[in-house]
Specification:
- Helices cover 44% and strands 15% of the residues.
- It is of the alpha/beta class.
- Strands 3-9-8-7-6-4-5 form a 7-stranded mixed β-sheet, with helices on both faces. Strands 1-2 form a two-stranded antiparallel sheet.
- Strand 1 and strand 2 form a beta hairpin.
- Helix 3 runs antiparallel to helix 13 and helix 4 packs parallel to helix 13.
- The longest helix is centred in the C-terminal third of the chain and has 16 residues.
- 41% of the residues are buried.
Length: 301
């Protein structure tokens, strides 16, 4: 069945698959590595761009390639500014810390969220921020009545104060589900009633935008900050972007420094990110199409 599926891939895609040779057999088997969409390699265009990148001292905001990446990302996201950081985990931690400037603050997050499950509890371990968990539903959303019941904003001294609501799009551990825009609008309405910001862990946000056939900015107009990975389906070897208002990004720059995420001549890495934004977003349609074919094929086994 798998060989029938592979026949449906384009010749260019088949040639790109790594080969594994088995000693003594003479066989060369093409390998499809499905462990993660992060098991990628920089494209030839990325490698060429990285080798030719113009660089500068990013501490002084003088790296032209980093500046261009951040400018283009802000335009794509429909946000005032963005910031280039080494990883998605750091991007989420910086964002939460900027929304929760005091230790002992509280965030509301889904029980299947990457921030909650797979980032070593960094918001607590490093930032002293308490997580209040709500149950993710099978479609990646959650019951807004439960969310509202978990918001704590009283003037008493016993409880943490809720400071931010964290969402994830796509919702990885519920099968990559995409929360509908109507749900995001409902969360926005709820957060506005309580004066709370919304952070979206958008590690695969561009997958969501492509699947919904909308601009990323159409999703992100409903949040205050976002983290977006440039690796995974976008193919860069490293890097994520934080988006938000200018004053938010100014604070994020300070937090990035204390977390050890400041990079100097980072244009070599940002050059790959520019290729991710210019060339790889539309390629996600191929990924979605091939994934669908694979799922349909395996369902027939």
């Amino acid at each position: 069945m798998l060989h029938l599926l592979l026949r449906r891939l384009r010749p260019r895609q088949l040639r790109a698959l790594p080969q594994r040779r088995y000693p003594g057999s003479g066989w060369a088997v093409r390998t499809v590595d499905l462990r993660s969409d992060a098991v990628t390699r920089p494209s030839p265009a990325m490698r060429a761009a990285m080798a030719a990148a113009r660089v500068g001292y990013d501490i002084f905001e003088e790296d032209p390639t980093v500046n261009e990446l951040q400018r283009r990302a802000a335009e794509l996201f429909g946000m005032e500014e963005t910031l280039f950081v080494p990883s998605g985990t750091m991007a989420n931690l910086i964002s939460v810390m900027c929304h929760c400037p005091e230790r002992g603050a509280e965030l509301i997050v889904g029980d299947q969220a990457h921030i909650h499950l797979c980032e070593q509890g960094g918001v607590a371990q490093i930032a002293g921020i308490h997580s209040r968990v709500v149950r993710n539903l099978p479609d990646g959303t959650f019951d807004l009545n439960e969310v509202e019941s978990k918001i704590r904003n009283s003037s008493g001294t016993h409880c943490p104060q809720t400071s931010v609501i964290c969402l994830e799009n796509t919702q990885n551990f519920t099968g990559g589900r995409i929360p509908p825009l109507s749900f995001l609008q409902e969360v926005r309405d709820l957060s506005d009633r309580y004066g709370l910001p919304i952070h979206i862990d958008g590690a695969r946000l561009m997958n969501a935008a492509v699947a919904l056939d909308v601009k990323a900015s159409e999703i992100l107009r409903l949040c205050d900050s976002v983290s977006v990975c440039l690796n995974k389906g976008l193919g860069s070897p490293i890097g994520s972007l934080i988006g938000g208002r200018k004053e938010f990004i100014n604070q994020a720059i300070r937090v990035r420094r204390v977390l050890g995420g400041l990079m100097r001549q980072a244009g070599v890495l940002a050059a790959a990110g520019l290729i991710s934004l210019s060339d790889m977003v539309e390629r996600l349609r191929d990924d979605h199409r091939n994934t669908r074919k694979f799922a349909q094929g395996t369902n027939l086994m």
